[in-house]
Amino acid sequence: MLLESAGQEAWITVLILGVYALVVALAVVWIACRFPDRDPLKAIRCTLGSWATYPIVLLYCAFNVLIYAMSLSDVQTFTKILLLPDTPAWVLAVMIALFTIYTVLQGVEPIARTAYGVLVPLVLVILVLPFGVGKEIRLLQIDPFLWKGFSGVLRGAWLALPWAGQSLIVLSLMRHLSLRVNPYKWTLIGVGSAHLALAIMVLLISLVFGSILPSRLLYPGHELFAIVALTESIERIQAGIMVLWLCGSLINITLHLYVAVEEGSLALGIQRRGWITLILGAAGVFLAQWAGGALYRRSIAREAWWIGMHIAGQLAVLALLGLATLLIRMRQGAGTSA
User: Which CATH topology does 2-337 take?
Assistant: First the structure.
């Protein structure tokens, strides 16, 4: 979608999205650091009452369940098209959901350890990739820089803002960080490096395939790795990279489901999370089947109501968090004065 809208300058769009993602994430970090345990939702529940967290948690959980379902749909479609074409899509979705539910029930620590073991090699692969496809780069097949102006870049950024807003998830990760860890530094490193690596990937796609062909490919990233399959050993490396990508996608799916389960359980005071995990996991499977194929989801993603719904939800969560924090500060100040 980025390559369709922004063309060969889509890498600039990714950097713009990175700025938006950092603003959202750092705003959440700043709010969380106003409290001793970096858990604003807990502080709101204890100070203002559980009712004050319900609007925030409802929007936040709905957003994460939706991202979980859409990501699940993307992975099942990718797996069916490229790896298991004879397997029904709903079977793949159920298998992925069962794995995700099991992982969520294990807690955040196994998810974090697995994520570190997968994402670091993925970033290294992307950083080394320019040396692997250097011979395939053809500068003469791309247009001059910003040949069609900056409007396409901005249009691509607008279409992808819902995706960039996923950095809101740091709200649920802050409480699990050690108080000795600087959250600002690691947010900058995590969110910034992810978008920088993606920008490098998108730039390489444009340099290798030109300014027109990438927008016509369903999975241009996969095609980029395919062109370096010159020998059997390289083909094995390509398969390993695909496994890493699938593992990274599964971690993303698991993390969004975990966040929805944890925040929903805390808001409702639920101790045993098995049934709520099953309900939200199954809901994601149904939503993934309802979402249709990749082309249908791309058409929905261009709709103004879809983009506006995501952005409004993200900003509403930030605004409600900020308002609740202000009310807590005012109440504490009034108590101190008294």
Answer: Amino acid/polyamine transporter I (1.20.1740)
